[in-house]
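Q&A log
Question type: sequence-to-structure
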Amino acid sequence: MATLHENRLLFNSNITVSHSGGNLSSDSGLILVKEFMHTINFSNILKQTLTINDDRLYYNHANHSIIEQILFQLIAGYQTDSLADVLSKDPIFQSLLAKEQLASQPSISRLWDRLSQENISQLQEVNQILIDKVRTARNTTEMIFDLDSTHSDTFGNQEKSDYNAHYQTNGYHPLVAFEGLTGDFLKAELRSGNVYTSNGVADFVRPLFDHYQETVPVCSILVRADSGFATPELYELCEKRQNFYVIRLKSNRNLGKIAEQFVSIDDQQDWDKKEVHYASTLYQAKSWTHPRRICIKSTREATELIARHEFIITNLSENLSAEAAFQTYSKRGTMENYIKEAKNGFYFDKTDSPRFLENHARMMVSVLAYNIVNFMRTLCFTKETKGFQVSTIRLLLFKVAGKLVHSGRKTFLKLSSYHVYYELFHKILRNIQHFKWQ
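Response status: OK
Response body:
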């Protein structure tokens, strides 16, 4: 990119700054992402699974290539389509996509217009194929489905945008599922802003149960969710499929009376110390077809007289104590970090389009971007760096100055000689190249 801007610095008037350094890129570290995507055969999976109705008679950019470009832009931290115009001649992006010039912002916008509801399902299928491939490599037999809903702000009169009383703003109310042990983004569904948390949760989860119990069997599945998902349709689905669940219950008068029965106070009570009691019993609400196990946590803070009660419903064995059941549920808190990473790192909540379907498609591409980095991080990073967030990964590994040098039939990517984390960079590159896929 050339620029006419030149600025002389105040702290040293002999230095003049301009963006005229030539064929350089600040995103050379993205070759790690491309190398990983190559090892999992991403491009072929995308081409074989995603079929877009395209009536263009002539074009420079194939649909699959545009989607890959969007993925690289998101992973690099470029959230808006318009930045494609600035990156159009970036040598690293050209090399990653094997193109002389990137798709422009109008080309990307026209791609969103071409996508259909079937394409949304196909993008989810691409995501599922990748998860299955990675899960086989991890050789895991247990899974945890962490369910939640979140909020995506909208601006203006966007289709199906509505006011959400909980968030007190207009937007969408997506339903999401993460794998609690690995952080993989299992599934996402965009919904209108006024839809209640658990609305449609059984239909949302059922295909995941079908897939992991029939297509790719696992030995056990545990569903964790907050009180917004405390609905009989989810309990019954889990019980019918012989899956476990740990779901928080909202407190009510009947539950409070039950909890009070397990709190005992005697003359020797030390009111200056905090007390926590756990209990387990059977309970049947009016809307339930049969009694179910509830676990109770009663907490009385120091110097207070009344205990605060928390409840979870579960079908875990009675051999597992109520305290252990609460510990299992509390680990669901990591999901909040996954959602924040998807939003802040991969712009999962970005709603740039007026049409609902286009925003759903944008969301699904963000899911793919999140998972690609999560797969690479958990499988190929060093032990010390597996917990890095994408913002740190970009700073240490992706945002590297580099220059492509062509010599005869070979091309050399010359990275900055002063890349502080070059040893980590090459270690991860070797891990990617030597990783054995089953």
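Response note: The two ends are 42 Å apart (CA to CA).
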